[in-house]
Amino acid sequence: MAAVDSFQFLYREISRTCNSYFETLALVGALYTASRAVILLSDCCTLVRVHFLPRLIPSKKLTQRYGDWAVVYGASEPVAKAYAEELARHAISIIFVTRDPSSVRDMSAYLSQNYGVETVVVSADFSLDQVACKPIKEALRGKDIGFLVNCVDESLASPQSLIEVPEQHLLDLVNRNIAVTTLMTRLVLPGMVDRSRGAVVNISSGACCRPLLGRVTLTASTGYLDHLSRALHLEYSSKGIFIQSLLPFQIASSEQQPSSSSSSPSRREGWFVPKPEVYARHAISTLGVSNRTTGYWPHTLQYGLMRCIPEWIWVLGSRVLISSS
């Protein structure tokens, strides 16, 4: 009984001592809850503004806003092909820059026949250094280039430890996904600056948001493209150039080619895994609206969830999944 009385007395003393702090703690809790609610409301408004309003409210034609021609590098990737087709649907002529012309020749003919646009295929072997720039400059001369689309190499999505990648293959990956995309931007930007209009779209991957086991080259390359886009936007947005970083997650394989521009091997089509054509249709509607976006609103939900997970939990979960598989 004495123990009970002692506990009650101790509890009353502690309550009396801390009573002055209760209102302060309640105020801090209310402020924190309000701040989280404001952030959630802001994210919801951004989701509607970026992904829904542009598709509901008519705007100027892309040719009037940016230009008549688009340069597409990496068009052998399904998502880049779909993006090029969406541009052609808006009456924009296409210049394909590729090391293997046969990979885009059918696509080039398809766009010309179905959309009545001009298409040009430029063969450029960037392993020859600056020699590859000459045919590109010739193709650009005299054209109103309004778009540059760079797409990351899908082969980066294959899980592979860095020490397992052959040295020459690693150099080729770095050259194609980092050096060449930067060089393509360098070749196209001067004309856009002179005309005070244009758009540069770098399609990378949501993998740049968090480290992934077995995908060092993917995380690093897409991270470079993302930061390149953000830096270019800071430098050239005042000159009328819109620079966009697209960060898609999983994209289903196209019917023509079994491949994907995602950071995961799964390619089953679904709500969160759209067809390349569906993704491109959504992504192109965000042009001029957001300089950094997933391009597809379900992917934006995924990205928001990923941001809420601390990195140490993400890394721990990745290791558990890898070890259990």
Automatic annotation (TrEMBL):
Compartments it resides in: Mitochondrion
Similarity section: Belongs to the short-chain dehydrogenases/reductases (SDR) family. 17-beta-HSD 3 subfamily.
UniProt keyword annotation of Mitochondrion present: yes
Database matches in Gene3D superfamilies: NAD(P)-binding Rossmann-like Domain
Gene: HSDL1
Protein name: Inactive hydroxysteroid dehydrogenase-like protein 1
Chief location category: mitochondrion
PANTHER family cross-referenced by the UniProt entry: INACTIVE HYDROXYSTEROID DEHYDROGENASE-LIKE PROTEIN 1
Organism: Astatotilapia calliptera
SUPFAM superfamilies in alphabetical order: NAD(P)-binding Rossmann-fold domains (SSF51735)
GO CC annotations on file: mitochondrion
Keywords per UniProt: Mitochondrion, NADP
